[in-house]
Design brief:
alpha+beta, 1 helix, OB fold (Dihydrolipoamide Acetyltransferase, E2P), 4-stranded antiparallel beta sheet, about 20% helix
Length: about 80
C-alpha cells in the first residue's frame, strides 16, 4: 500500500473514532413544562424533552445548560453559571 493509501486509512479511522465519542454543546432552556432546549447555533428548540441530570423543576426559561450528544442521544448534564 502506498503512503497516501495508509494515511487515508488512518484519517478514516480517526474520523470514525471522533464520531463515536460524546460531543458537548451549550443550550438555552426555552420552555419548562415540558422542558425544551435550543442548542447554540440552532434557530428552533428541539422537539423533545431530554433526559436530565438536573431536576426539571429547578430550571427556568433562559437558563444556560450543558448537554451531551452521544450515539443519537441527548442528555442535559447541568446548568451553566457565569
Amino acid at each position: 500500500m502506498t503512503l497516501h493509501g495508509e494515511l487515508t486509512n488512518v484519517n478514516r479511522r480517526i474520523d470514525d473514532l471522533a464520531r463515536s465519542l460524546p460531543r458537548y454543546r451549550f443550550a438555552t432552556i426555552t420552555a419548562t413544562a415540558p422542558v425544551r432546549v435550543r442548542l447554540d447555533g440552532d434557530s428552533e428548540p428541539l422537539p423533545i424533552t431530554p433526559p436530565s441530570l438536573v431536576d426539571h423543576s429547578t430550571l427556568t426559561i433562559g437558563d444556560r445548560v450543558a448537554v451531551r450528544l452521544h450515539s443519537g442521544q441527548l442528555l442535559l448534564e447541568g446548568r451553566v453559571y457565569s
